[in-house]
Amino acid sequence: MAVSEKLKSLVARLPDPDGRGMLTENIDKDKIEGAVAEIAKGGRANVEGLVEMLGEPGTEENVKPHYALHCVANYVLIAKDEGARRQFAETLAEKLDGDLSTFNKGFLCQELQWAGRGEAVPALGKLLLDEALVEPASMALVAIRQGAAERFLAALPKAQGKCRLNILDGLAALADPKAAGPLREALKDPDREVRIAAAAGLAKLGHAGSVDLLIQAADCEPGWERIQQTRHAMVLAEKLAAAGKKTEAGKIYNHLRSTRTDASEKYIREAAEKALSAV
Question: How many domains does one find in the chain?
């Protein structure tokens, strides 16, 4: 699309980047706020224009439109203009399916993490199998929450490597009960980090049906995974105890107290003993 001359002139009123690409030159708060307000009033056309103006990362031509988009995101939120916010988010979500660079699509995900709601979820969900964009897309979905778990769960069966790990981290952060089954299955994954992420999710869910699985996961060989899985087992026990499920919590504490006999794990044994007395 052709960028209007008016939009170009408004963007030109924003601060100039210095030699490091930082916006430290010609700072005038009133001038900046006035320009941003005018850009925001232009609605979808101006948001599309700003996206069109984005350059390659690190280039001087990228700095001002990049800054302007972030300012518009803040403006619609501060103004509490739900119509403008939704239009802004819908426009960015549509652009995620375009021919922008990976860097700039990642930037749009960051802005949707800030200003997006349910309207952005379908477009973000499509990026969950893209290794280059799964991380910013996952972060945005977790921040939005509404409808995010369904997108993670739909993508999980097809996900591998980095994508699978980010999806499981997202499900763990959301603590959605529907994720319990897939998280339990992921405890068998050959990837250590995937197993750790799955245990973290089950612990955060406080899933009583996973007590034996997390005990088993925590009894792996000494090293990083054992440390992490033991921590998640303790978190699960804390959640269960807080929910009044003292028998299930006690099973974890008793196990850790009796099995952590090495001097290097004395702190675990002591923590389990203390928690057990409280239960």
Answer: 2
Contact 17, 63 (CB under 8 A): yes
Over residues 54-62, mean pLDDT? 83
Query: In whole angstroms, how far apart are CA 246 and each of 1, 87, 144, 208, 252?
Result: 62, 49, 34, 10, 10
Rounded to whole angstroms, the Cα distance separating 207 from 183 reads 10
Is 230 contained in some domain? yes
Closest CA to 104 of 112, 96, 113: 96
> Is 276 in a helix, a strand, or coil?
helix
- The fraction of the chain above a pLDDT of 70, given in percent, is 96
Say yes or no to pLDDT of 202 above 80.
Answer: yes
Q: DSSP for 151-203, please give it.
A: HHHHHGGG--HHHHHHHHHHHHHHT-GGGHHHHHHHTT-SSHHHHHHHHHHHH
Choose the final residue of a domain: 83, 116, 149: 116
Task: Please give the Cα distance from 156 to 169 (Å, whole number).
Answer: 11
Domain span holding position 190: 175-279
CB neighbourhood size of 162 (10 A):
14
